[in-house]
Every structure is written in C-alpha cells, then in structure tokens.
Amino acid sequence: MPEPEPVSIRAGLIAGIAGPLLSLLARSWRIELVGAVSPWRELDRGSRPYVLLAWHEVLLPLLWHHRRRGMTIVVSEGREGRYLAAYARRLGYRESRGSSTRGGVRALVGAIKALRAGGSVAFTPDGPRGPRRSFKGGVLLAAWKGGAPVVAAHAGTDRAWRLGSWDRLLVPKPFARVRIAYGPPFRVEDGSAALKRAEERAIRELAEATRRAEAGTPGEPS
Q1: Report field, pTM of the whole predicted structure over 0.90
Q2: Fewest beta carbons within 10 Å, which of 8, 53, 154, 216?
Q3: What domains can be seen in the chain, in order of their start residue?
C-alpha cells in the first residue's frame, strides 16, 4: 500500500481544535480487525487489564476504536500532549501525564496504579518526540510492575492524510477502510534479562502488527 504524502498541518490542530470534526470523520471509517483478535477480545470483554503498545503515528484510529473503555493513556506534558489528552478525555479516556523526557516517573507510577486497579493502559513507545518507530523500553516496566500482559497493535488504511509532524501522524480520510492488527498477548517477567527479552518481543510484535495492518490482509468487522 503506497504511503500517503505528508501535508502541512500541525498534529495539535487536528487533535485539539478539530476534536468534534475528527469524531464526525471517525464515525465514517469502516474498521476491520486482523491478527490475534480473539485473545485481545478475551482481555477486553473480560475487563482484564493489559498494556496496549502502538506507534505514535496511529494514535487517532486507535483512540477512536478503543474509546469508552475506561483506558488510561500516557501523554506527554508538552503542547501536543495536552491537545491529545483533551481529545482522549472527550472519548472517555483517563490520562497519566509524563513521557520519557518529562515527568516520566510520575507517568509510570500512574500507569502502574491504573493497571493494579484493574484498568488498561495505552503507551506509544516512540513518543512524544521520536525518532519515529524507535522503541523506548521503559514502557514495559509498567506491564511488569502492574502484572498485566502486553498487546501490540497497529492501524493501516486504504486512504489517509499524513501530517508533517515527526511521526507523520495518520489521519484516515472519510469512509476509509481502517485495519487494526493485534499481536498475541505476552507477559513481562522479573529481571533485567527478562525485560530485554520482552523488549525484543515487543519490537517483533509491533513489526508484525504493522505488516498485517498495512498489507491489506482481509479481516473481520469490529
């Protein structure tokens, strides 16, 4: 599937100022699910906490698809993070503020508390400033300390705009077919060697979810 050309629009403008219009746009998307859908649904429908990992660029379709589930999203303390948090709250998300560069410990503690309280948490391991699709392993500490499995996810579409931001944020066009791919849940065990193995697996699962979502593999309606 060819990559859409980037356009000169700030991601903050879309996520913050145009929130109601974005929701109207999202209602037109035709969402299909591929990959390890059944294991994800078992966690989701059983209200069992998990950590959702996804690249920053696909935040918008994933925020829309996972709305109204009481999920906590880890957002940065910068301006774009505030815009995304405002839109996420509109969709029923809770937030844990901080990032790998600012307030990271506070955000991690908030995420662990949310998991231990029975809620799920969404992380973007390359956020908030990139580099794009560069994994920052600290996010796996929350899964370990919170005792929750990790699920990698990605979204692809047949037509979209790409913003001119560092992550080339994906905005599916009206009536786009959006494919969301899930990886199989896995646990993060205790110890530095286990954390390293978990990071390697998370990178593999994100790569496979990305391949499935962007390859046009037939899926099931959401």
Answers
A1: no
A2: 8
A3: 6-215 (3.40.1130.10)
